[in-house]
Structure formats: structure tokens, C-alpha cells
Amino acid sequence: MSSIVASEAPAGSGSSRGFRFAMLLPGGLVTFFLILFALGLVLFLALRGNDGSLLGVGFTAGNFITVLSDPLYWTVTLRSLVIAGLVTLATVVTAYPVAYYLAFHAGRRRGLLLFLVTLPFWTSYLLRVFAWKIVLAYNGVLNSALIESGIWSEPTLAFLNTPAAVVVTLAHAYAPFAILPIYVALDTIPKSLLEAASDLGARPFTAFRRVVLPNSMPGVLAAALVVFVPTVGDYVTPAMVGGPASTMIGTLIQSQFGKANDWPFGAALSVCVMLVILWVVLVARGADRKFGSRT
């Protein structure tokens, strides 16, 4: 009997390893080809010279030197970080009350409200941006409402083609991405902690400040990263609702891969932006660890 078990064990362990390999293979291939290979190709292009071909010619650091020495790219990068920061701040501040209500006060309506939160995912991102363009246009919904209410006598160009229009549009587009991680963090807070705080005489605001907010900070930081990272490189929204003062780094990168036909320089810009975003992610990770150690 023991010999039979011993003979069957290697076969079982071998089939288990084969099963694990088969399960990991699709994810591994996707990780390699869509992430690692793509990043490697971008870095390879960034070190090439532009001769109009797809992969460039020779190896040079001139693309990075141009990016670091030209004030234009520093200005646009700083503007992109500021706009992305404002979008992140506006999104998180408006998403937190919604997530708080879903976690603690929604009751039986929670499922319906979560469905409504995810409903924008059913529509195209371009359609949502174009809808805001209609709202903010010279003869759009907002100007018409202000004129009909008697606040203004004629339409204004103060809404469209401004950095504020980009911030509002992006904040609306990425609101669900902020609500969901904050909601998950709030929903995992044990209700016994709030009951204990109440039994000890803590007022609702004190319980929120000392119990709810610190324990929900990992979700807040996750929401901030989920919003900040894609908005830094966004180029569709600035092109549709922003003006020249709203040009972001993603617009310059897109133009290098498009009209300028300078893929190596566009790749160098992309690498620099990725390094900036990586630094932001590392700072956020450090802040998450600090909040985790405190709680």
C-alpha cells in the first residue's frame, strides 16, 4: 500500500505543477508582451535617432538631452502635474461623501446605488467628454441656463477652452474610479470600532476623525493614484475642452507619434513622464505605509 502511494505522489505533484503552469501561462504572456516588451520597446526607441523609419537609426541620448534642456517640456510637464493634482483633489473630495454614504447609510439601496455609480462605464469616454463640451460651449447648456435665469445677458467664452474645463471634465470622468476604492476601504472598517467609540463618549465627528478617516486612508490613496496616473498623460480631454493654456504632456507625446512623426522623441517624453509618475507612486506608497503603521 505504501509503495502505491509513493508511486502516485510524484504523478500527482507533477500534474499539480502542470496545472499551475497552465493557469499562470496566459497571465505571464500578457505581462511579458503587453507590459514588459512594450516598456522595453519604448525605452529602445527613446535611445534611437529619428530618420523617419519605424525603429529609428543609431543610438543617442540626444532625445533625453532635449527634453531636459528645453523649458517648454518642463513647463508643460509641470502644468500636467498641476492639472492632474487638481483633478485628483476634486475627485477624491467629492467621491468620499458618496462612498461614505454607500458604506454606512445606503442600506438596502446599496446595490442599486453601486450600479448607478458604475453606470458611466457603459458609455464611451469620448461621449462623456463631448457631452461636457456641449454643456460648456458658447451656446451650450450652461450659458443658456445663466441667460434664461437672468444672471448674464449674453453668452461667455469663460467656460470652454480653459484649464478649469479640463479639470471639471476629468473629475467627472474619473469619479467612479475614486468612489469604488474608497467605498471598499470604508466598508471593511469593523462596525464594532464605531460602536466602541460611541460607548466611550466620542461624538460623531470625533469618531469620524479618529476612527473612520485614518482607517480609510489606504482607499483614499488608492483612489488618488487611480485618478492621478491616467490624467497626467491624458490628451483627449485637453484637445476637446481645453485651449492652448491647457496643453498637457500627453498632447505633446501624441503629436510626436502623429503629425511630427518623431517616434524616438515621443518615446523619450514617455519615459520621462513614466519616471515622474513612478516617483509619485513611491511617495504615495510611503505615505500608505505611514498611515498603516499609525492605524
UniProtKB/TrEMBL annotation:
Domain of life, source organism: Bacteria
Residue span, ABC transmembrane type-1 domain: 77-284
Subcellular location(s) per record: Cell membrane
Protein topology in the membrane: Multi-pass membrane protein
Keyword terms, alphabetized: Cell membrane, Membrane, Transmembrane, Transmembrane helix, Transport
Stored InterPro entries: MetI-like (IPR000515), MetI-like_sf (IPR035906)
Name under which the protein is recorded: ABC transporter permease
Taxonomic source organism: Mesorhizobium caraganae
